[in-house]
Structures are given as C-alpha cells and as structure tokens.
Design a protein that fits this description.
This protein is mostly helical. The protein has one domain. It is built from 6 helices and no strands. The longest helix has about 40 residues. It is globular, with a radius of gyration of 20 Å. The model has no long low-confidence stretch (mean pLDDT about 95). It binds protoporphyrin IX containing FE. Protoporphyrin IX containing FE (HEM) binds next to helix 1, helix 2, helix 3 and helix 5.
Length: about 190
C-alpha cells in the first residue's frame, strides 16, 4: 500500500502537536515535583493532604498528557521516516535521534522521581529539581534547531548572539523567580 503525499503533512502536523503536548507535560510535571518537595515546609497539618494531592496530580498529568504526547510524537515520527527513509542516513537526524533518546531517558527518570515522591523517599531538593527542569528546554532548542537547519546547523556569530540573548533571558527569569522566592520567605518569616 502506498500512502498519498499529503499523508506526510498529516504525520508532520500530528508530530508537532505531539511534541507540544509532550513538552507541556514534561515542564509541568517537574514543576509539580518542586511543589511536592516544598510541601514539607508547610504547616504540619497541611503536609500530608498537600503531598497526596500533588501525587495524584503528577500521576494524572504523566499518564494522561505527558506519555500520550510522547507516544504520539514517536508514532508520527515513524510515519514520517517510513515515507522519507533517507533522513535516517543524514547526520542531523542521527544527532536528533541521540537527543530524543536522552529525552526518553529523562522522561523515564521523571516516572522514577514520581514513584519516589509518592513513597516519601525522594532525596532531591526543590533547588535541584528547578535545575533539572531546565534540561528539557535545552533538548527542545537543540532538536528544533536540528530539524529546521538540518545539515546547515548554524555556527555564525549572529547565531551565537541569538543563543547568548536566549540564555541571558532564561537566566534573568531564573534570577527574578529566585529573588521573588527569597523575598516571600523573608516576608513570611517577619
Ligand atoms: C523518535 C523521535 C523523532 C523522530 C524520528 C523525528 C523525525 C522527524 C522527521 C522525519 C521530521 C520531518 C522533517 C522534514 O520533513 O523536514 C520531523 C519534523 C519535526 N520534528 Fe521530529 N522527530 C522525532 C522527535 C522530535 C522531538 C522530540 C521534537 C521536539 C523536541 C521534534 C520536533 C520536530 C519539529 C518541530 C518538526 C517540524 C520541522 C519542519 O519540517 O518544519 N521531533 N521529525
């Protein structure tokens, strides 16, 4: 059976929708882990109900949004590769597959953290989880650049300027969030 040419565009559209859903899930999941860990700092009577609520939200988010997004992304990618198998021989695709594999390891690791959190034996601090939550952003940027620029991966001065600006913006957001957190902690303590 040969697929009509427009099937490629359907696969690509659904692939991108899958990517958006997958990443939305990954970003929010680790954010929930941060709230879950920081629930330990709440008033003692609130700790248990808050942790139970976060555990439930994490499980639903992971099973109803994040993993289905991942499955859709990969199934549609398989469709794309069946229609354009020569991509597999190209360097950009080989790099892309390496980063996607690392992303899958990250996805599975989130499940492990989720189990540890619901069993109350997670050793990660809120700060470490915040740093962990930066990883998917990095994968997203690299994979999108690879798929758009393909073998002409940009290395010019203008590119490094844009990369520098993006990093500066990301660092400023982190710095502002940290400043707000510290200010709230001080206000609560006084
Ligand atoms: C199993 C893993 C994956 C495979 C085999 C795969 C494969 C592909 C293929 C063959 C295309 C079509 C390229 C073209 O027509 O020029 C594509 C498009 C795309 N992929 Fe993936 N992909 C995978 C995972 C991902 C992930 C994790 C992301 C995001 C982080 C992603 C982002 C994109 C985007 C944004 C496009 C559209 C690019 C365009 O043509 O404008 N892919 N992918």
């Amino acid at each position: 059976m040969t697929l009509p040419p427009e099937a490629y565009l359907w696969f690509k559209s659904l692939h991108i929708i899958g990517v958006v859903v997958w990443f939305a899930g990954l970003f929010y999941l680790v954010r929930l882990f941060i709230y879950h860990v920081e629930a330990n700092e709440l008033e003692p009577t609130l700790v248990k109900p808050f942790k139970e609520q976060y555990a439930l939200m994490e499980k639903r988010l992971a099973n109803i949004i994040t993993t289905p997004g991942m499955v859709l992304t990969i199934l549609m990618a398989v469709g794309l590769l069946i229609m354009q198998p020569q991509f597999l021989l190209q360097r950009w695709m080989q790099f892309k597959l390496f980063f996607v594999f690392t992303l899958l390891v990250y996805h599975l690791y989130c499940y492990r953290l989720m189990r540890q959190l619901s069993n109350n034996n997670c050793n990660w601090s809120g700060r470490q989880l915040r740093a962990l939550n930066e990883l998917p952003t990095l994968f997203l940027v690299i994979v999108v650049l690879l798929v758009i620029f393909k073998n002409q991966f940009p290395t010019s001065a203008a590119t490094w300027l844009i990369v520098g600006l993006v990093l500066f913006m990301a660092a400023s957001i982190q710095y502002y969030a940290r400043w707000r957190r510290i200010r709230e902690e001080r206000l609560n303590a006084s």
